Amino acid sequence: MKAALTGICRIDTAGMKTAVSSLHSHFKDLRFVHELEQLVIAGVCKLLDDSGISYPIGNDDICLYIGIDDAIEEIKSEYFRAVLDQGLIGASPLLFPFTSPNALTARASIVFDIRGESIVFPLKDLYGNVIKYSVESICQGFSEMAITGAILLKDGLHDPSAKYRMDLYFLENERTALKRDARIYRYIDVSNHEGI
Amino acid sequence: MSRNVYITGVGIVTPLNPFSGVKEFWNALCSGKNAIRRMKLPLLKSDREWLMAGFDNSSLPEKLPVEDKFGYIAEEALKMAVLDARLDGIDNREETKTGIFIGTVLGNILCKEKRLMEGGNRSDDNIKEESLSYIASHIASRYGLTGPVFTVSTACASGTDAVGIAARQIKAGNADIMIAGGVETLSDLAISGFNSLQAITEDRVRPFDRRRSGLAPGEGAAFVVLESGESASKRGVEVYGRVLGYSSKSDANHLTGPHREGRGLACAIRQALSEAKIHHDEIDYINAHGTGTVYNDLMETKAMKGAFGEGAYGIPVSSTKSMLGHSFGAAGSIEVICCLLSIKTGLIHPTLNLEEKDPECDLDYVPAKARNHAVNTAMSLSAGFGGQNSVIILGRV
Prior knowledge:
The complex is a heterodimer. By secondary structure, chain A is of the alpha/beta class. Chain A contains 6 helices and 6 strands; from the N terminus they run βααβααβαββαβ. In chain A, helix 2 (about 35-50) crosses helix 4 (about 100-110). Chain A is globular. In chain B, helix 5 (about 160-170) packs across helix 11 and helix 8 (about 265-275) packs across helix 9. Chain B is built from 11 helices and 14 strands. In chain B, helix 9 (about 295-310) links the parallel strand 9 and strand 10 (about 315-320). Helices cover about 30% and strands about 20% of the residues of chain B. Chain B folds into 2 domains: about 5-235, Peroxisomal Thiolase, Chain A, domain 1 (3-Layer(aba) Sandwich), CATH 3.40.47; about 240-395, Thiolase/Chalcone synthase (Peroxisomal Thiolase, Chain A, domain 1, 3-Layer(aba) Sandwich). Chains A and B meet through helix 3, helix 4, strand 3 and helix 5 of A and helix 3, strand 5, helix 5, helix 6 and strand 8 of B.
């Protein structure tokens, strides 16, 4: 069995402003704690749009398999510096959940009502293995559709606002893609996932 | 390709009889020994004490640097599992593909805390030992593992997901042997955070009790060796049990609280049963997430009732966290091992401090004393921040 690639989104923190504005037109009460959270929600929104998937989803057909590099470390440092500066009173109950990387995908699952598996894979740099796992998950029937990719620290030396980037792909069971008449960028199996 | 997955080795290091082996751990747990006590923060100066289950410094090597504790307990548990599986060292195994999956929430956070306390600046934020993925890649490289290497971070379900996803690697033929589990240390970051959310009990950890008031942070490491049937049979190794089914679902509801009706967990239970191809009346024991927080225990009870119907009343359920506290990324793998030991010994460990029944938590939670009970099939439940819900089913071979 092959997985069909039916959506692509590459976004960074500098380019996410338009997407975030559009989010606010969909979700009136959306509040953010951290810019990484904004990036993830804006990225997933753009990806779902690109894939032709309407939301809220409201079922467990879609899974989230996301890699994350040291981008998460900065949240932990920010949280702990506040504790060092102010003692226990500096411990932010809003920021604390984001010291666990799954909070980022969890926010996307909540905003878009995605109830399938949601697995975060911390990694150092390359995220090919995350894509491979996602393809396998679809090919072996553990998931019908998957949002996969990675959240990465970007070299923000020239543009500090472009500190983080996110590469996202929407994969789905070939039959599902054909049934819903989705635009298919290409087919992927476990042996050719690296090209994307 | 879909292969059966067996567990052929277990290793566990917790504050309960630390570093003394699996048998001593299990004896202590079944006798109701409690590892939770009043402790101060690991690094920050504070007069305040919290209820926690942490290693006594005397149980750790003298002069072990704080930043090495995470790796030390991980490697001790891993070595125990590898020895138990008679792998005779996990390197030099060119004929088989061996991989490693490690679940953790905060990784080597004590390393980061120490650096920041010493005035470390932002440019140091990419120190490799602080990366969540470091421990898995370090162990893989040190032992020459050639199979899949992953870190899994799904909050308090990390340990369960690491084992479940590792089992899928064997099923898919990506590896013959997988080492999988979780590791977490107590940290100022976690304690200050759970304190800010008012999640830490000041009384006792009382899962499913009417007076339950919160969790106690804990620490530890636990690993299992998973193996394909062909590999286990070829090596003639003893088998603890078989992974029958695994599922993970999201609540899609709240960042720090569970879905009040246990929607995601009930869905994960049904899916795991379906993957295991067994009927719910075949489950002999459930190791609950059982944190002792008001909402988790009620949600879990509702999820079990939702998935098992009236049958839920006939299944013994117990909470390991009533004695070990909540070791976050390690908890799921510790509880997988408890299920395997129940299958092996026919003994279910008790839920401690359950004295006053909550009318809404009315299942059989095995209060106070361990119980002799034949367990052929056991289920471990894990839930976590972000609405993570993971279920793994293990069976006797």
